[in-house]
Structure formats: structure tokens, C-alpha cells
């Protein structure tokens, strides 16, 4: 019997999941697997956890929901924990699988792990096949090769919009054939080396992990409230759950795909009309694509102090006292403090807040930007390797900003975006 493994990573969904669809079409039975990679729960060289408790809690909920959705189709989710290059081959041997289907990675560490697994599977005469499932535009459909992708977003966007098409999303499978899958057995936060973080009651939104919640959020933001029609005007808001879509959290773990969202935007436009706001959400999805493709192009460079600029000597060190003040909302700026407290106590921060606290970190505190990026990696529920490190490099002047350096006037930003002090009053009381 042809048995295949579907190794889930940051694609925790059954709708529009090419990896799952291709595995089903090429196999007689499949085993869906998720591996808790030990390295994801270690402390990084910057002194922060790679994955903090807010994101881990969201991940556990997402896996529970994935298992539930798989069981409705006749399958379930096998959980393993350790090093993927050890654990995935073990499962391959146990189920006598001949192929592993998995989403394709772009960032350095993830690709390294993928290669280690591939080498171990080769010895077991087991093939690995990867699929690109994280972007709106497929890499093969871009009007340029990866090495020739423009480094300036506007050039990338215009040419891509003009010359590339967005593929249709894959429908979810009607049935999955699997052997009997044991009851879901998730590790606890304590087993993962973390403590439970209670969500602050002032949180803009209570994120719950999983594809079911992602689709529920989309329906709320699009069809129930029609907030999509005013997205461009409200997206720089800072208080409440509906000033922006908040999709980034579910996108980061692949509980929903960009193509699925795009398809729903098109349905919405047919029903309620297209405008600048409905386009603007697509525009933001293209930004997300851009950073992912930049990582394919530059690989490890986004983790260097010099970023994708070749010769920038690291002139900035770390000041523990200033770092502590920034993290704990004790800086000289009340606007920065309010944003940093929101991040610390909820795992979320608005897009406007992120740009300001990053600019403050790089320009006012004058510290090595990578420590800021590493703290975000630990803290953000919606952490996505390409978007996080790509955006930080951009603001530090070593990424894709054509102007070379972006400096925010924090006081002006505060009066523009928190005119009535509603946001600061909420978090600083």
C-alpha cells in the first residue's frame, strides 16, 4: 500500500493546501504529522526565546483545530517532538511511508532543517516533495527569476500585477484515507519550557488559533461588518479589533492562505463593490509576498547587521538598561511605552506602532536592530520570519527601503495617530 506523510509546518489548514491535495492524489493513505521542533523553543543568541508563550498558545489551538478538521475528513494529526531530522524519519519507518509531502521553506534555518530531513530520508529510500503554499503569487509565475527580483517593492509590485496571475485556491479534500490515527496528544506549555501568559483585558482582539477561527474572522471583517470597504482609511488605527483585518496572525501559521483571502475579496467586490480599500488589502498581501521572495533571493543576509547592504560596519552595540526600558515601556516617550506594553501583555501591536518602536530603537536608542527583531520574534503572535526580519532591516536602513533610512518623528506620529490620546490612556493608566 502506498503510504505518504504530510508534514505540516506553517500551513495548518485543509482549505487551499496543495501539499495535502497532492499527497492525497498520489497515495492510497496518508499520515498527517506535526513536529514540535526543539530548536523553536530554545533561547536565541540575542537572549530571547525563539517562540514565546502567546504564539505557542495560539499554535496549540491551531493544531487542535487542524486535528478536528482532519478527523471530520477521516484522518487526524500525529504529534511528535524533538529534532525533525530524527522524528520525521522515525514516523516514515513506522508507517513504511515512501514519500513525504511538505511546504517549501525560504529562510535559512528552516531550509537547513529541511535539507537535514531530506538527507536522512534519502537513506531510507523515501522521497521528499516540497510545495510553495505561503504566497499570493506563485514563485514560478513571477515575471522575473528569483535572483532578478527588483529590490524596490514598487517595481516588484507593478511588474508582478501587470504580468503575473494569481492561481485559484485548491478546494479542501472531501475525504482522507488514513490508518487509525491516535488521539491528539499535544505537549503542554511547561513541557515546551514556557509559562502560561494571561491575556491583558485591554487587548485589541482575542486571537484564537485555527483555520475555523481564521475563516470566522474573515467573514466578520468582510461580510458581516463590511469593514473591508473602509480598510484603507482605518488601517492605521490603534484601538479595537476592527480598524484592520488582523489576518496576519492566522496567515503566519498558515491557518488561512493569501489566495483564499484574495478569492474572498473578489467575491466581496462582486457583492458590495470594489474600491481603493478592497484593493489595499491585496496590496498588503503583495508586501508579504515581497519579503518572502526577498528571503529566497538573499537568504542569510537579512540576519546580518548589514542586511542586504554589503558594507555597513556594525557601529552599534547593546545597552542592557535601554533595552530593558524599551521592552517594559519605560522610555522617555509615552507613545513608545504604550505600544511596548501592548506587545508585552498581549503579543500584538498595530502596524503603526511597530514602525514607530522600531524607528525609536534604531534611531533614538541607537542599538543593533537585530535585538529588536529578536524580541519581536519571541513576543509576536503573528511572527513571520520574512516579514519580521525584512521589516526591521527596512527600518534600520539595511533592507529594501529605496530611501536608505527611515526616521520617524515619534511626537508627530503620536499626535497624528493618537490625537485624542485614547491609545496612550488605555495602556498607560
Automatic annotation (TrEMBL):
Q: Does the keyword Flavoprotein apply?
A: yes
InterPro entries documented for this protein = Cry_DASH, Crypto/Photolyase_FAD-like_sf, Crypto/Photolyase_N_sf, Cryptochr/Photolyase_FAD-bd, Cryptochrome/DNA_photolyase_1, DNA_photolyase_N, Rossmann-like_a/b/a_fold
Q: Name one GO molecular function term.
A: DNA binding
Q: How is the cofactor bound?
A: Binds 1 5,10-methenyltetrahydrofolate (MTHF) per subunit.
Gene Ontology terms describing biological process: photoreactive repair
Q: Does the keyword Membrane apply?
A: no
Which keywords are on file for this protein? Chromophore, FAD, Flavoprotein, Lyase
Q: Which cofactor does it need?
A: (6R)-5,10-methylene-5,6,7,8-tetrahydrofolate; FAD
Function field: May have a photoreceptor function.
Q: What is this protein called?
A: Cryptochrome DASH
Q: Which organism is it from?
A: Flavobacterium swingsii
Amino acid at each position: 500500500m502506498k503510504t505518504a506523510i504530510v508534514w505540516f509546518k506553517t500551513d495548518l489548514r485543509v482549505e487551499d493546501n496543495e501539499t495535502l491535495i497532492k499527497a492525497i492524489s498520489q497515495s492510497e493513505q496518508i499520515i498527517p504529522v506535526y513536529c514540535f521542533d526543539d530548536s523553536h523553543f530554545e533561547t536565541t543568541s540575542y537572549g530571547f526565546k525563539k517562540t514565546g508563550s502567546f504564539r505557542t498558545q495560539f499554535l496549540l489551538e491551531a493544531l487542535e483545530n487542524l486535528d478536528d478538521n482532519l478527523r471530520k475528513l477521516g484522518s487526524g494529526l500525529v504529534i511528535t517532538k524533538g529534532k525533525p531530522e530524527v522524528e520525521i524519519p522515525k514516523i516514515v519507518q513506522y508507517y513504511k511511508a515512501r514519500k513525504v509531502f511538505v511546504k517549501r521553506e525560504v529562510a535559512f534555518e528552516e531550509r537547513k532543517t529541511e535539507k537535514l530531513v531530506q538527507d536522512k530520508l534519502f537513506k531510507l529510500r523515501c522521497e521528499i516533495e516540497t510545495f510553495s503554499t505561503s504566497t499570493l503569487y506563485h514563485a514560478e509565475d513571477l515575471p522575473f527569476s528569483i535572483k532578478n527580483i527588483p529590490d524596490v517593492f514598487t517595481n516588484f509590485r507593478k511588474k508582478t500585477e501587470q504580468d503575473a496571475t494569481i492561481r485559484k485556491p485548491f478546494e479542501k479534500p472531501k475525504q482522507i484515507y488514513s490508518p487509525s490515527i491516535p488521539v491528539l496528544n499535544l505537549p503542554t506549555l511547561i513541557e515546551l519550557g514556557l509559562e502560561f501568559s494571561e491575556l491583558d483585558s485591554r487587548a485589541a482582539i482575542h486571537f484564537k488559533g485555527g483555520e475555523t477561527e481564521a475563516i470566522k474572522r474573515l467573514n466578520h471583517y468582510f461580510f458581516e461588518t463590511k469593514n473591508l470597504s473602509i480598510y484603507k482609511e482605518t488601517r492605521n488605527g490603534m484601538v479595537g479589533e476592527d480598524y484592520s483585518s488582523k489576518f496576519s496572525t492566522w496567515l503566519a501559521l498558515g491557518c488561512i492562505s493569501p489566495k483564499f483571502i484574495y478569492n474572498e475579496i473578489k467575491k466581496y467586490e462582486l457583492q458590495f463593490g470594489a474600491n481603493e480599500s478592497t484593493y489595499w488589502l491585496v496590496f498588503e498581501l503583495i508586501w508579504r509576498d515581497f519579503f518572502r521572495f526577498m528571503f529566497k533571493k538573499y537568504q542569510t543576509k537579512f540576519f546580518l547587521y548589514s542586511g542586504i547592504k554589503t558594507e555597513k560596519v556594525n557601529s552599534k552595540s547593546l545597552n542592557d538598561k535601554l533595552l530593558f526600558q524599551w521592552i517594559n515601556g519605560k522610555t522617555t516617550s509615552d507613545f513608545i511605552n504604550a505600544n511596548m506594553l501592548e506587545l508585552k501583555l498581549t503579543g500584538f501591536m498595530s502596524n503603526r506602532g511597530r514602525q514607530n518602536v522600531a524607528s525609536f530603537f534604531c534611531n533614538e536608542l541607537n542599538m543593533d536592530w537585530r535585538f529588536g527583531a529578536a524580541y519581536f520574534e519571541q513576543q509576536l503572535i503573528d511572527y513571520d520570519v520574512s516579514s519580521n526580519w525584512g521589516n526591521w532591516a527596512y527600518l534600520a536602513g539595511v533592507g529594501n527601503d529605496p530611501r536608505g533610512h527611515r526616521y520617524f518623528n515619534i511626537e508627530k506620529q503620536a499626535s497624528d495617530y493618537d490625537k485624542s490620546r485614547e491609545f496612550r490612556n488605555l495602556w498607560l493608566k
